C-alpha cells in the first residue's frame, strides 16, 4: 500500500494508485508499480527523501504556473472565434499575442478568469481568439511579470460534423480472399468488397482491421494490432497486378510473377491458415521485379511530389526498413551506432543502402495510391462514408516508430489492460506507451502525423481502445498485467489533435470506449462529435440485465460483437468458454463460467422474444444449443441484427463473419501460437471457404433485412 506522500506525488503526474475493476470493486495498485511507473516518467520515488524532493519540485511548478507545452483552443465551427485559457498568475496585466501559422500576428484581448472544477481547482486567464483564425497549430506569446513566454496553440473545431444514420460491414481484410488475390485479402479486394457492399446491400461503410506497417522481412507478426509503425502501411496489402510497373513488365518477368502468385491463389481455396511469411516472400520478390521498371517523366514527378509531402518521416521509415532487412526488425538488437537515427553511422548507412531505401519509399507511394483508390471505389459505388480505418493502440517495442521517435516513448513499460470479464488475467500487449510530457513537448507531432496518415484515404477512423486519448494501463516489464496501473494524458490536447485532423477530411470518428472507461471520457468524446461503441453482449443495465434497444446510445456504433470475441454462432455455442478453459485463461472453474454464459444468453433470448423477434421459444433454443444443435443459429443471428436496427445508434456495424455464418474465433486475447490468431480465412457455417467472388448476396440480404430496411436512403440505392 502506498503512503500519503507517494499518493500525492503520483496524483501530480496522473499515475493511478487505485482503480475500479470490471466487477465494480476497488483495487489498490502495488507500491512497487507506482514507483516503477514514476521512474519511467523521470520521477524518482525510490526513497521517502526522493519523494519529498519531487513533491517540492512539483509544488514549485504549481506556484510559478509556467505555460504548458501546448494550449488548446476550441473554435466555433462558423466564426472561428474561441477562448484561450492559460494558467493564471497572481499579478494582473499580462499581454497576449497570437502568432499564426502563416506568420501573421494579432493582439489577444483579455476575457476574464475561470476556475477549473475538480479536486485541484486552478485559475485560468482567458483571452479571445480572433474570428476567422484557421484551425491548426499556431503560437501563443505571453508577457507577464516582466517575463516573456511562448508556447504552441492548437486551434481545433469545437465539434465534428454529425455522422449520417447508416450501417456498414466490418471485416478482417486479410481473411477476405478472392480468386485474384495472393492468399490473403488486399487493397483491390477492399475496393471490391466496398463496391459490392454498397451496390448489393446498400452499405455506407466498410470498417477494416489496421493496415499498419509490419516487419519488412519474415517472420511477420500476424496481429494487425502489433505493428512496426502506425504512420505507414503494410505492403502485404498491395495488389501486384494493379501496379503501373506490372503493366510495363515484359513476358518473362510477367511469367515469373505469375509463378509466384499461382500456388498462393490455389491455397486460398482451402481452409488452411493464412501464411503471411510465405505470402510476403512471394510478394517481395514480385515487388522487386516491378521496382526495377523505369518510370516515365510524369510518374517520376508524382513520386517526387509524394516524397516531398511525406518528408523526413518517410525517409526515416524507409531507412529503418532497409536496416531491419540486415539487422532484424528490433532496433534494440542493432549495433549501438545504429540505434539513434541522427547518428553519423546511420547517415553513412543511408548512402550505402540508398537503393533499398528507395524501394521501401516506392512501396509506400504505391500503397498510398491503392488506399486512395479503395476509398474512391467505395464512394463511386454510393457509400456515404466509405472505408473506415482502424488505429491500433500502440506499436512494437523495437519497431520503426520507436526508433524514429524514441524520446516520446516510455522505456521499461508496456501497454495493456486490467483483468476484465473476457480476459480475467489482464492483458499485456507488448507495446510501449507514449511518454505524456515528452509527447506534449514535441507538440504532439508524431501523434498528429499518424492521425493525418490514417485519415488521408478514408471516410472514417476507429480508435481502438479509445481511452488512449485519456489514460493507458501501464505494465512494468517483468510484472503481470494485473500489477499495472493507469497513467493519464492531457485528454483535451489529445482529443483536439484527433478532432483537428478528422475535421480536415470530414471523417467520422468512432472511439472503442468499451470496458472501464471513465464517464467523463465518454462525455468529452460525445461533446466533440466522436461516436462511442456499443457492443450488444456488454450492454446491460445497472442490475446486469440486457439493455432494451431504446436505452442504447444515439452517438455510437452499435455491433453484436468484436474481433476479440467469437462470431455470433460461436458465442451461442459457448466456444469461447471452451477455448479459454483449454488454454488456462479462466480464473474460476469452467462449469461456473459456462453456467454464467448460459444465464446471460438466456436473458438475451428472453429480451429478443419480448421484442417479438423470435419465432421459437427461448427455452427450446437453449435446449437445442445444449445438445449441440445448430438448427436455430440463423434465427438468432437475424433476431440480433433486427434488435440492433431498433436501437437509436447512428451507425450499425455488421461483421462479415456473422453475415456468412463463420463460427471460428479470429483472435483470442492472451494467447500467441496457442490459437491461430489473425490467420483464419473466411468460411461459412458448414466450414467451407468463402471467397469474395462468391459472397452469398441473396442469403445475406435475407439475414440482414431489418438492417437494410432501417435506413431507407441507403437501402433503396
From TrEMBL:
Protein keywords: Carbohydrate metabolism, Glycosyltransferase, Transferase
One MF term in the entry's GO annotations: 4-alpha-glucanotransferase activity
Originating species: Thermomonospora curvata (strain ATCC 19995 / DSM 43183 / JCM 3096 / KCTC 9072 / NBRC 15933 / NCIMB 10081 / Henssen B9)
Name recorded for this polypeptide: 4-alpha-glucanotransferase
Reactions catalysed, as given in the entry: Transfers a segment of a (1->4)-alpha-D-glucan to a new position in an acceptor, which may be glucose or a (1->4)-alpha-D-glucan
UniProt key word Glycosyltransferase: yes
PANTHER family named in the record: 4-ALPHA-GLUCANOTRANSFERASE DPE1, CHLOROPLASTIC/AMYLOPLASTIC, 4-ALPHA-GLUCANOTRANSFERASE DPE1, CHLOROPLASTIC_AMYLOPLASTIC
Family designation: Belongs to the disproportionating enzyme family.
Entry's EC annotation: 2.4.1.25
Domain MalQ N-terminal beta-sandwich positions: 67-157
GO terms (BP aspect): carbohydrate metabolic process
Enzyme class at the top of the EC tree: transferase
InterPro entries: GH, Glyco_hydro_77, MalQ_N
One Pfam family of this chain: Glyco_hydro_77
Keyword Glycosyltransferase: yes
Amino acid at each position: 500500500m502506498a503512503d500519503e506522500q507517494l499518493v500525492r506525488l503520483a496524483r501530480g503526474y496522473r499515475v493511478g494508485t487505485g482503480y475500479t475493476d470490471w466487477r465494480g470493486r476497488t483495487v489498490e495498485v502495488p507500491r512497487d508499480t507506482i514507483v516503477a511507473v514514476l521512474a519511467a516518467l523521470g520521477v524518482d520515488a525510490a526513497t521517502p527523501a526522493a519523494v519529498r524532493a519531487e513533491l517540492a519540485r512539483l509544488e514549485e511548478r504549481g506556484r510559478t504556473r509556467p505555460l504548458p507545452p501546448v494550449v488548446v483552443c476550441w473554435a466555433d465551427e462558423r466564426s472561428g472565434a474561441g477562448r484561450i485559457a492559460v494558467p493564471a498568475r497572481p499579478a494582473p496585466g499580462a499581454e497576449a499575442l497570437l502568432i499564426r501559422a502563416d506568420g501573421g500576428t494579432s493582439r489577444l484581448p483579455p476575457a476574464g478568469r475561470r476556475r477549473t472544477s475538480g479536486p485541484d481547482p486552478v485559475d485560468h486567464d482567458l483571452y479571445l481568439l480572433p474570428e476567422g483564425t484557421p484551425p491548426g497549430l499556431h503560437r501563443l506569446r505571453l508577457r507577464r511579470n516582466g517575463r516573456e513566454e511562448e508556447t504552441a496553440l492548437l486551434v481545433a473545431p469545437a465539434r465534428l460534423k454529425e455522422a449520417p444514420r447508416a450501417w456498414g460491414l466490418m471485416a478482417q481484410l486479410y481473411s477476405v480472399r478472392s480468386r485474384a488475390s495472393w492468399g490473403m485479402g488486399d487493397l483491390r479486394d477492399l475496393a471490391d468488397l466496398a463496391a459490392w457492399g454498397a451496390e448489393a446491400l446498400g452499405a455506407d461503410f466498410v470498417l477494416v482491421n489496421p493496415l499498419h506497417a509490419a516487419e519488412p522481412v519474415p517472420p511477420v507478426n500476424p496481429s494487425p494490432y502489433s505493428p512496426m509503425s502506425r504512420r505507414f502501411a503494410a505492403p502485404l496489402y498491395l495488389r501486384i497486378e494493379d501496379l503501373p510497373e506490372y503493366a510495363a513488365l515484359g513476358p518473362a518477368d510477367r511469367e515469373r510473377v505469375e509463378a509466384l502468385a499461382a500456388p498462393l491463389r490455389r491455397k486460398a481455396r482451402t481452409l488452411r491458415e493464412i501464411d503471411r511469411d510465405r505470402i510476403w516472400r512471394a510478394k517481395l520478390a514480385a515487388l522487386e521485379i516491378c521496382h526495377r521498371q523505369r518510370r516515365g517523366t510524369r510518374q517520376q514527378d508524382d513520386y517526387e511530389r509524394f516524397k516531398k509531402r511525406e518528408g523526413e518521416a518517410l525517409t526515416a521509415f524507409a531507412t529503418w526498413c532497409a536496416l531491419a532487412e540486415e539487422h532484424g526488425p528490433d532496433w534494440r538488437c542493432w549495433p549501438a551506432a545504429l540505434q539513434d537515427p541522427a547518428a553519423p553511422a546511420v547517415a553513412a548507412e543511408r548512402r550505402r543502402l540508398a537503393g533499398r531505401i528507395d524501394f521501401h519509399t516506392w512501396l509506400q507511394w504505391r500503397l498510398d495510391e491503392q488506399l486512395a483508390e479503395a476509398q474512391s471505389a467505395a464512394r463511386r459505388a454510393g457509400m456515404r462514408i466509405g472505408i473506415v480505418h482502424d488505429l491500433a493502440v500502440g506499436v512494437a517495442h523495437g519497431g520503426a516508430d520507436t526508433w524514429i521517435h524514441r524520446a516520446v516513448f516510455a522505456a521499461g513499460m508496456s501497454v495493456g489492460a486490467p483483468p476484465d470479464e473476457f480476459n480475467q488475467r489482464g492483458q499485456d500487449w507488448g507495446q510501449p506507451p507514449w511518454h505524456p510530457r515528452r509527447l506534449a513537448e514535441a507538440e504532439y507531432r508524431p501523434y498528429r502525423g499518424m492521425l493525418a496518415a490514417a485519415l488521408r484515404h478514408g471516410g472514417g477512423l476507429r480508435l481502438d481502445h479509445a481511452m488512449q486519448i485519456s489514460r493507458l494501463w501501464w505494465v512494468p516489464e517483468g510484472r503481470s498485467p494485473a500489477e499495472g496501473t493507469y497513467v493519464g494524458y492531457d485528454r483535451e490536447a489529445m482529443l483536439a489533435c484527433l478532432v483537428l485532423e478528422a475535421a480536415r477530411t470530414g471523417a467520422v470518428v468512432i472511439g472503442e470506449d468499451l470496458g472501464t472507461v471513465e464517464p467523463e471520457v465518454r462525455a468529452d468524446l460525445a461533446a466533440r462529435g466522436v461516436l462511442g461503441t456499443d457492443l450488444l453482449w456488454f450492454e446491460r443495465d445497472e442490475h446486469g440485465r440486457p439493455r432494451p434497444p431504446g436505452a442504447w446510445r444515439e452517438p455510437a456504433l452499435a455491433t453484436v460483437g468484436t474481433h476479440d470475441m467469437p462470431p455470433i454462432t460461436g458465442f451461442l455455442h459457448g466456444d469461447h468458454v471452451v477455448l479459454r478453459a483449454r488454454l488456462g485463461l479462466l480464473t474460476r472453474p469452467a462449469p461456473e463460467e459456462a453456467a454464467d454464459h448460459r444465464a446471460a444468453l438466456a436473458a438475451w433470448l428472453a429480451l429478443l422474444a419480448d421484442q417479438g423477434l423470435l419465432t421459437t421459444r427461448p427455452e427450446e433454443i437453449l435446449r437445442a444449443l445444449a445438445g449441440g444443435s445448430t438448427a436455430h443459429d440463423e434465427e438468432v443471428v437475424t433476431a440480433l441484427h433486427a434488435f440492433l436496427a431498433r436501437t437509436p445508434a447512428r451507425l450499425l456495424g455488421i461483421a462479415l463473419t456473422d453475415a456468412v455464418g463463420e463460427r471460428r474465433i479470429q483472435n483470442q486475447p492472451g494467447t500467441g501460437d496457442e490459437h491461430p490468431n489473425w490467420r483464419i480465412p473466411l468460411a461459412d457455417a458448414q466450414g467451407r471457404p468463402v471467397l469474395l467472388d462468391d459472397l452469398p448476396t441473396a442469403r445475406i440480404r435475407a439475414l440482414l433485412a431489418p438492417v437494410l430496411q432501417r435506413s431507407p436512403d441507403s437501402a433503396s440505392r
